[in-house]
Amino acid sequence: MRQDFMYGQAFGRWLISSFALSFFLLNVAHAQADKALYEPTIAQAGKDVIWVPTPNDLVVKMLEAAKVTPNDLVYDLGAGDGKIPIQAARQFGARAVGIEFNPDMANLARQNAQRAGVADKVTIVTGDIFKEDFSNATVVTLYLLTTLNLKLKPTLLNMKPGTRVVSNSFMMGTWEPDLVINPETGGRGALTPATGGRGYYWIVPAKVQGEWSVTGLPGITTANLSLQQKFQKTEGTLTFGDNRSQRVVGKLNGAQFTLSYKDANDKEQTFIGEVAGKKIYASLQDSPTTVITATKLH
Ligand SMILES: C[S@@+](CC[C@H](N)C(=O)[O-])C[C@H]1O[C@@H](n2cnc3c(N)ncnc32)[C@H](O)[C@@H]1O
What gap in Å lies between CA 56 and CA 86, rounded to an integer? Predict the structure, then answer.
């Protein structure tokens, strides 16, 4: 009996010390895991640009400006600690990819995505933004430098019309932003002159420069439209079959093309079309059932 009691006591002590040891080892493991997290320093060198994280409020405003939804695939070029892709997944439900050159940083971004519970939606690629393919992105986010934005500009302009691009601080040269983001003014970003913004937003425009033959304009058999394009802005000449011609100004919002002209009765009309390669399918704002087709000649 006494032996049983002593055996019970010894077993109890063994159980307690085992628990204590396991608890201690678990803590050590956690401490080591935390210690293993790479700790970057603000402004540390990067391949083409230093690391500085985008402030939290601006991350949200940039993603709001781009109207990110769960249907989007967001790419952050130069992803740092992964905060933009992580927020795109966590708050907006998007799938997101970060491209980061520094392998330690990329690893940290992966660990951060894991800790934020969005590892299933966020992929971090260790690579160079000038070599990796991001052509399937629907939204591209940037916090680089103007020189790097300019280097990326031709690639961005060749992306699918309607792709949204958002940049912290740095602009895109002569490609004016569609929206300037100023979190201080509230809302999803305010349209203000393109100065003093904290972020900038562009929508990749469809390419419409050239000569078009237009059928379906009310009262006009065929018309010829000659367009010059500067990014999202267009201007040109619309010539009716009887050789009457007029200067016209248009605007692109991704693949959506809006053009104002004066009809055969000198009434101001707005043509709203969808650009699909060498065709534009359109109608008039005042008469949405009108079927207008423009075909690219060259
Ligand atoms: C200013 S930080 C921005 C980080 C993050 N996008 C953000 O807004 O919080 C720029 C990041 O780009 C990375 N970087 C620099 N050159 C790169 C390159 N050629 N390819 C991929 N990443 C690059 C740097 O290591 C750094 O983490």
Answer: 11
Nearest CA to ligand 1 atom 11: 78
Choose one of 39, 42, 51 to mutate for the ligand 1 pocket test, by most ligand atoms within 8 angstroms of C-beta: 51
pLDDT tens digits along 13-32: 544 444 444 443 344 344 44
For the CA of 79, the nearest atom of ligand 1: 6
Q: Is the CB of 53 under 6 A from ligand 1?
A: yes
User: pLDDT per residue over 120-161, tens digit each?
Assistant: 999 999 999 999 999 999 999 999 999 999 999 999 999 999
Under 8 Å CB-to-CB from 202, ≥6 apart: which residues?
156, 164, 165, 166, 172, 175, 177, 178, 232
> CATH for 56-203?
3.40.50.150
pTM over 0.90: no
What CATH number was assigned to the domain covering residues 210-296?
2.40.128.120
CA of 39 to the centre of ligand 1 (A): 15
